[in-house]
Amino acid sequence: MADSPDIVTVTAETFQSIVLDGSFERPVLVDFWADWCAPCRMLMPILAKLAEEYHGRFLLAKVNTEEQQALAAEFGIRSLPTVQLFKAGQPIDQFMGALPEGQIRDFIDRHIPRPSDRLLEQAEECLANGDIAGAERLVERIRAEDPENSRVALAEIQLMTARGELGEATHAIERLPLELANEPEVLALRGQLRFAAALTDAPSEADVTADLARDPANSLARYQLSAYQVFRGDYEAALENLLTLMRRDRAFQDDAARKGMLAIFDLLGTGDLVARYRAKMMNALY
């Protein structure tokens, strides 16, 4: 199997530049193999075919473990074939054995951007700018051009949310493909839906604030105020209100305050604010 621009043999000397550094430019699929390994020989032509078919969207790097034993040991290779996928200088996923072509294709597709992903980004930009009609047109185009892109389901949920179809969006998010269920944007969307639902039929923010000023023990008003604060981007104030509510009325709407704090953590991801309020939440719990 001759090397090509998308299929290369790597050694300990070239691994850093080709695999680790190269994975910042595009994903690198590393095939750890040996000549004596029959499943390795079965797998090689499948990987080569896919590397050619994907036209440079990933690089296939081959490591002969008989010749590169130290390299195989460094990456914990204990059975052959083992295929690891590298992104941004790190191995992020792997499979072992000579899988069927369809399963390998699914493995690759989980990590490699599709051409239609750019259209999804444009649809998200439209939604961020309040252009629901523009986002709808882009999602329809993706459905027509690339119906296999599982991420279009997420865009459709974002559209439902923007249109105020909260019940439909909540139902749809539970039916997302398993590989999307725990992605950061899905977790964030769950949080947005939680707070949007809290404001369904709610009084105005001014009225909620007035209600809470009259009665600081009004759990519903405090929870609704935190939802308004989330949508204004005042996450610290929202977290403080939810923490207060959790301490005063843990049973409110089936532990809604704690769940709301977790939803904000998902919205924000990481950072000092999340770390501080996660510690405060744990102290309040225990």
Automatic annotation (TrEMBL):
InterPro entries: Thioredoxin, Thioredoxin-like_sf, Thioredoxin_CS, Thioredoxin_domain, TPR-like_helical_dom_sf. Residues 6-113 form the Thioredoxin domain. The keyword Protein biosynthesis does not apply. One of its GO terms (molecular function) is protein-disulfide reductase activity. Keywords: Disulfide bond, Electron transport, Redox-active center, Transport. The keyword Manganese does not apply. GO terms for cellular component: cytoplasm. GO terms for biological process: response to stress. Pfam families: Thioredoxin (PF00085), TPR_19 (PF14559), TPR_20 (PF14561). Belongs to the thioredoxin family. This is Thioredoxin. The lineage of its organism: Bacteria, Pseudomonadati, Pseudomonadota, Gammaproteobacteria, Chromatiales.
